[in-house]
Write a structure and sequence with these properties.
heterodimer; A: 325 residues; Uridine Diphospho-n-acetylenolpyruvylglucosamine Reductase, domain 3; Enolase-like, domain 1; four-stranded antiparallel beta sheet; 12 helices; B: 673 residues; Aldehyde Oxidoreductase, domain 4; 3 domains; five-stranded mixed beta sheet; 27 strands; globular
C-alpha cells in the first residue's frame, strides 16, 4: 500500500473540508482499503467519518418513510425488524451480501459507492477503460460475469445487493457537501459510466452520502430479493432480482423489478413492470414479465446463460410474492 | 516395566493432542516466528507471461532507508532451478515468475522498494492454453491390444473429458524465516517435507545437507504444494546472508496462486469397450495435461494411472502428454492425476452402465480387479474395494431420486484407487521412556495437519500400554529427529507408524528404542481405494447444483483414529465439491494474466457448500502391507468425489457435462438444448 495521511474528522464541516481531489472518506473500509492495497486507488488522504455524530447511523421511521443512516452496517440493515417487516427485499439483500465479518464492517453508504468487481478492473496489471484506459478487455475476454445491458464502454456489473433492492423501493439518497445538502433519486445517483465520468455514481468529490430514504408503502406491499451465485454464500451475484409487488383485489397495482448483475448499475426492468401492472397475478403474466425483463439484452460470448437465469429468478420472485399476498 | 500392550488406544476417536495449542493461538507457524533483528522480504514478479529481462536497476530500491538487501538477476548467483532455468533467470516464463527481491525493516518498506526497482522487459510471444502449448513426449503404457479389444466390444463409449486448473489455496501461504548461524542455515518453513526442503535448499546453496536445518512445528495446509524447496526459501537465505540478519518471507495470496503450484488441467479422450454383460474388453485414454512453464518436481501427476488399475481389463492403452504453457508450474495437489483421471474414467463408466442398462455398482463388480495388473501382483487387500462398494450401497440406500418438478434429485456413484498410501521405507522414529509412566516419540518428519502427532502417539501409547496423555512427541525438525518422509502420497502414517511401533517395542527393553520402517511385501501390491455415492439436487431453471449427501467408504487399513479419518474424508470431499462445481483458475488469453489469483474470484467451497457426509469407512487392518496394518487416507477421498457428483447431476437431469467445473452456464446451455 502506498503511504497516505489519515484524519479522523470531529465535525461534518471538518470532514467535508478535508475531502476533495486525492481524498476519500473512510467508513467500513471494506472496499476502499483493498483497492488501495491492490494499488488501484491512489489516495493521499483518508478522512475517517465513523465517529461523526452528525452522520445518522440509525434506521428511523418518520412521516416521510424510513431513513437509513449512511453509517448503518449491512448487518444492522439485515437485522432491522422494520426492514424485515416492510422492506423485506432490502433486509434479504443486505443479508445475502458478503460474509458476516464484512457485513459487520461495511456501511450502507460505502456499499453504494463500492467499485465493480470485474476481474479486469481489479487486476493491477491490466489497463481498462474504467481505469482510464482505451478499451474494455472484458468485452472480448473472460466475460461470464459481465453485463447484458447498459450499452456503456464498460461491461462490468454493479456489485451491490442492497442497491438493487433500494432501487426497487424508489429510494432517494441524501448527500451533504460544501454547498449544503441535496437529495437525489437513487436512479439519478447511480449512473452509467461515460467517457466524461468513469464512475458509477454522481457523487462529487467533496460530498458524502448521509442517508438513504425509503418512501412509505402501504402495508400490503410485498417484496423479495433472490440471488444466484457460483457457490451457496460469500460471492457476488451472477444475477439477482429485487421485486416489489402490491395487489389490489387480485390485480397488480404496483410492481418494481430490478435486476442485479446484468449492467454497470442495478437495472430496472420497466418493460417487465409494465407487463404486470393492471393484470391479474398469475403464472402467465409472470412469464410475460420475465420475458419482458430481458428484452433488449445484448449478451457477450460468455454470459448468455444470464438470460434464462434472470428470467427464472423473475418468475420465481413474482410467484413467491403472489403466493405470499 | 514390561507390560502387555493394551491395544486400547489405537482405534479410539481421540481429539488431536495439539488442538488446545491451535485454538488458543499457542501453536507457532512460520508467520509467528520473530527472531532478533528479523527483516521482511518481498518478491518482485513478472507482469508478463513471457519476457526477457533486458535490464534491472535496483539502485533506488537499495538506497531507500530501511532496505537491507536486494537481489535480482543482475547480481544473484547462478543457481539452477526447474531443471532448465535459474533462480533469477533473465527469461521469464509466466506471469508471477521471480524477478527480484528485497529485504527491509518492515513489510511496507519492502513493498515501497519493489516499486522503485526499474526493469526493462522485452515481451515475447506466449501461450497459456492446453490446446496451444508446447507438447512433450508421450508417456505410453500398453497392456494387451486395446485396438482389438475395441473391435471385439459390443458396446463402446467414446468421449472427451476435461478438467480445469485448480489452485491449492491452503489457508497458510508458503513462507519461511531464514536465519544463518555461522555457516549453518536454519529455516522455519511451512512445509510438508522438512527433509525435502533441507535437501533442495542445501543443493541450491552448495551446502552439506546437515548444514541446513528445517523446522516446521505446525503448518496451515499444504495439499501437495509444499513438498519441495521453492525459490522463496533460497531467496530468503541469500537475502539473510547479504543483510547479516534473519529474513522472513511470506507469499501474498496472489503470489501463492501464481507461482506456488496448481493442479494441472487435463483433456482426456477416453474409449471403453465392453461386452453386453459388462465385461470390459478395452480401456483407452489419450491425455493432455497442462504442466505450466516448468516441471516443478515432487510427486508426479499420473492422470493415466487409474485407467490401468481400477478395473480388470486385458487390453489397456494410455498415453499421457505434458503440455508446457506460460503459466505457473503445476505441482501435486491431493491425489495428483488420480482426481483428474477419475473424472474421465468414472464418468465414462457411468456412461457405459447407462448404455448397458446396468447398475453402476454391478458393472464395477463385473470388472473387479484383485490384482495390480501393471505390476502383475495380487493385492494385499483384494476384497477391500468390494467391502467399500457394499458399505456405500448400504449407506446411500435412503438417497432418493426426484425426476419430476423444477428441482430434480439424482444419485451418482464413483470409485477410485490410489497409487501410494502404502508407505515405504525409509522412515525412522525413536521412543524414549522418561520414567515408568511417560514416553516421548521423536521423529524429524512433520505433521502436515492431518493429525500425525496424535496418531503416532496413539501407536506408541498402545504399544507401551500407557494412556495417551502420558506420551508426548517431538516432530517437524530435521535437526532434532531421525529421517521421516515427506507427507505426500498419503504415506506418513503407513511409513512412520510401523517405525514408531518398533521403536516403542525396543524402548520397553532399554528405555530408548529406535525403530525403522520395514520393507513392503515383495510378491504383493498394496493399494488404497474407496467408493462414494453422491445425492444432488439440480434446479432445472437456474442451473444451481446442491450436493445434498455423500456416502463414502475407503480402505485405509487399520483405522488408528476414526476422528482423524473423518476429518480427511470431510476435507477431501469438500475440496472435491469445489473441484466439481466451481473452482477454476481463469487466464486471460489476450494478456496471459491470471484473472482470479485471489480468494474472492477463485471460489473455494464454504461450509454451506459441503454436503452431509456419511463416512462409513471400516477399519480393515492390512497386516500384509505393514506390521501396523494402516494405510493412507489423506488423498484418496477426493478421487471419486467429482465424478460421483457429476454422475448424480446426470442422473437428476439427464444431461451430461464432461467439462469441469459444472458451472451454471454449461448446465443451462445443455438443458436448453
Amino acid at each position: 500500500m502506498r503511504p497516505f495521511s489519515y484524519s479522523s474528522a470531529r465535525t461534518l464541516d471538518e470532514a467535508i473540508g478535508l475531502l476533495g481531489a486525492g481524498a476519500r472518506p473512510l467508513a467500513g473500509g471494506t472496499d476502499l482499503l483493498p483497492l488501495m492495497k491492490a494499488d488501484l486507488g491512489h489516495f493521499d488522504r483518508l478522512v475517517d467519518i465513523k465517529r461523526l455524530a452528525a452522520l445518522p447511523r440509525r434506521i428511523e421511521e418518520n412521516g416521510e418513510g424510513v431513513v437509513l443512516g449512511a453509517l448503518a452496517t449491512l448487518s444492522e440493515l439485515a437485522a432491522s425488524p422494520t426492514l424485515q417487516e416492510r422492506y423485506r427485499a432490502l433486509a434479504q439483500a443486505a443479508d445475502a451480501a458478503a460474509t458476516p465479518q464484512l457485513r459487520n464492517m461495511a456501511t450502507l453508504g460505502g456499499n453504494l459507492l463500492q467499485r465493480p468487481r470485474c476481474w479486469y478492473f481489479r487486476h493491477s496489471r491490466i489497463p481498462c477503460w474504467l481505469k482510464g484506459g482505451e478499451n474494455c478487455p472484458a468485452r472480448d475476454g473472460e466475460n461470464r460475469e459481465h453485463a447484458l445491458f447498459g450499452d456503456a464502454p464498460c461491461v462490468a456489473v454493479h456489485p451491490s445487493d442492497p442497491a438493487a433492492a433500494l432501487l426497487a423501493f424508489d429510494a432517494d439518497v441524501r448527500l451533504v457537501g460544501r454547498a449544503g445538502e441535496r437529495t437525489l433519486a437513487l436512479s439519478d445517483f447511480l449512473r452509467l459510466p461515460s467517457d466524461r465520468r468513469r464512475v458509477e455514481t454522481s457523487l462529487a468529490e467533496e460530498e458524502l452520502v448521509s442517508a438513504v430514504r425509503l418512501a412509505p408503502h402501504p402495508p400490503e406491499t410485498k417484496s423479495i430479493y433472490l440471488k444466484a451465485m457460483d457457490r451457496k454464500v460469500w460471492a457476488f451475484a451472477l444475477v439477482s432480482v429485487a421485486a416489489v409487488l402490491r395487489l389490489a383485489e387480485r390485480r397488480i397495482a404496483h410492481a418494481r423489478i430490478v435486476l442485479g448483475g446484468v449492467a454497470p448499475i442495478p437495472w430496472r426492468a420497466h418493460a417487465a413492470e409494465a407487463a404486470l401492472v393492471g393484470e391479474a397475478a398469475g403464472a402467465e403474466v409472470f412469464e410475460r414479465a420475465a420475458q419482458a425483463a430481458l428484452e433488449g439484452a445484448r449478451p457477450l460470448a460468455g454470459n448468455g446463460y444470464k438470460l434464462p437465469l434472470a428470467r427464472a429468478l423473475v418468475r420465481r420472485a413474482l410467484g413467491e410474492l403472489a403466493d405470499a399476498a | 516395566m514390561r507390560r502387555e500392550p493394551e491395544h486400547g488406544v489405537v482405534g479410539r476417536p481421540h481429539p488431536r493432542i495439539e488442538a488446545p495449542d491451535k485454538v488458543t493461538g499457542r501453536a507457532r507457524y512460520s508467520a509467528d516466528v520473530r527472531l532478533p533483528g528479523q527483516l521482511q522480504a518481498r518478491i518482485l514478479r513478472s507482469p508478463h507471461p513471457h519476457a526477457r529481462v533486458v535490464g534491472v536497476d535496483t539502485g533506488a530500491a537499495a538506497a531507500l532507508p530501511g532496505v537491507r538487501a536486494v537481489i535480482s538477476s543482475a547480481d544473484a548467483p547462478a543457481i539452477r532451478w526447474y531443471e532448465k532455468s535459474l533462480l533469477f533467470d533473465t527469461t521469464l516464463r509466466f506471469a508471477g515468475d521471480e524477478v527480484a527481491a528485497v529485504a527491509a525493516e518492515t513489510e511496507e518498506i519492502a513493498e515501497d522498494a519493489l516499486r522503485l526497482i526499474r526493469v526493462e522487459y522485452q515481451p515475447l510471444p506466449f501461450n497459456v492454453s492446453l490446446e496451444d502449448g508446447a507438447r512433450g513426449e508421450a508417456d505410453v503404457y500398453r497392456r494387451g491390444d486395446a485396438a482389438r479389444g475395441l473391435r471385439e466390444a459390443e458396446v463402446v463409449v467414446e468421449q472427451v473429458y476435461t478438467t480445469q486448473t485448480a489452485l491449492h489455496n491452503a489457508l497458510e501461504p508458503h513462507g519461511c524465516v531464514a536465519a544463518w548461524e555461522g555457516e549453518r542455515l536454519v529455516l522455519y518453513e511451512s512445509t510438508q517435507g522438512v527433509f525435502s526442503v533441507r535437501d533442495g535448499v542445501a543443493e541450491a546453496l552448495g551446502l552439506a545437507k546437515d548444514a541446513v536445518r528445517v523446522v516446521t512445528p505446525h503448518m496451515g495446509g499444504g495439499f501437495g504444494a509444499k513438498q519441495i524447496a521453492w525459490k522463496h526459501s533460497v531467496i530468503a537465505a541469500l537475502l539473510a546472508r547479504r543483510a547479516g540478519r534473519p529474513v522472513q518471507i511470506l507469499l501474498e495470496r496472489d503470489a501463492e496462486n501464481l507461482a506456488a503450484g496448481n493442479r494441472n488441467a487435463t483433456r482426456q479422450r477416453v474409449r471403453l469397450g465392453a461386452r453386453r454383460d459388462g465385461t470390459l474388453t478395452a480401456v483407452e485414454a489419450r491425455i493432455l495435461m497442462q504442466v505450466g512453464a516448468y516441471s516443478a518436481g515432487g510427486e508426479s501427476s499420473a492422470v493415466a494411472g487409474i485407467y490401468s488399475t481400477l478395473y480388470r481389463c486385458a487390453n489397456v492403452h494410455t498415453e499421457q502428454v505434458q503440455v508446457f504453457t506460460n503459466t505457473g508450474p503445476a505441482i501435486a495437489f491431493r491425489a495428483p492425476g488420480y482426481a483428474e483421471g477419475a473424472f474421465g474414467l468414472e464418468s465414462a463408466m457411468d456412461e457405459l452402465a447407462r448404455a448397458l442398462r446396468m447398475d453402476p455398482i454391478e458393472l464395477r463388480l463385473r470388472n473387479y480387479a484383485e490384482r495390480h495388473q501393471e505390476k502383475d501382483k495380487p493385492y494385499t487387500s483384494p476384497e477391500s474395494l468390494r467391502r467399500c462398494y457394499e458399505r456405500v450401497k448400504e449407506a446411500s440406500a435412503a438417497f432418493e431420486r426426484q425426476h419430476r418438478g423444477k428441482r430434480r434429485r439424482g444419485i451418482g456413484f464413483a470409485a477410485g484407487d490410489w497409487i501410494a498410501g502404502s508407505g515405504s521405507p525409509p522412515g525412522y522414529a525413536w521412543v524414549r521412556l522418561e520414567d515408568e509412566q511417560h514416553a516421548t516419540v521423536i521423529t524429524g518428519a512433520q505433521d502436515i495437519g492431518t493429525g500425525t502427532r496424535t496418531a503416532l502417539c496413539q501407536v506408541a501409547a498402545d504399544e507401551l500400554g500407557l494412556p495417551l496423555e502420558n506420551v508426548s512427541i517431538q516432530i517437524g525438525d530435521s535437526g532434532a529427529g531421525p529421517y521421516g518422509p515427506t507427507s505426500h502420497g498419503s504415506t506418513t502414517l503407513a511409513t512412520l507408524g510401523p517405525a514408531v511401533r518398533a521403536a516403542a517395542e525396543a524402548a520397553r527393553e532399554n528405555r530408548h528404542g529406535e525403530g525403522a520402517r520395514g520393507p513392503n511385501p515383495q510378491g504383493k501390491a498394496v493399494r488404497t481405494c474407496g467408493a462414494q455415492c453422491a445425492q444432488v439436487e439440480v434446479d432445472l431453471e437456474t442451473g444451481e447444483i446442491t450436493v445434498l449427501r455423500l456416502a463414502a467408504a475407503h480402505d485405509c487399513g487399520l483405522v488408528v483414529n476414526p476422528l482423524l479419518v473423518d476429518s480427511q474424508v470431510l476435507g477431501a470431499v469438500t475440496q472435491g465439491v469445489g473441484f466439481a462445481l466451481f473452482e477454476e483458475r481463469r487466464v486471460d488469453r489476450a494478456s496471459g494474466l491470471v484473472l482470479n489469483a485471489n480468494l474472492e474470484e477463485y471460489k473455494v467451497p464454504t461450509a454451506a457448500d459441503a454436503p452431509e457426509v456419511r463416512n462409513v469407512t471400516l477399519s480393515m487392518p492390512d497386516l500384509e502391507a505393514n506390521v501396523l496394518g494402516s494405510k493412507g487416507i489423506g488423498e484418496p477421498p477426493i478421487i471419486p468425489a467429482a465424478p460421483a457428483i457429476a454422475n448424480a447431476v446426470f442422473d437428476a437431469v439427464g444431461v451430461r457435462i464432461r467439462d469441469l467445473p459444472l458451472l451454471r452456464e454449461k448446465l443451462l446451455e445443455a438443458l436448453g438444448r
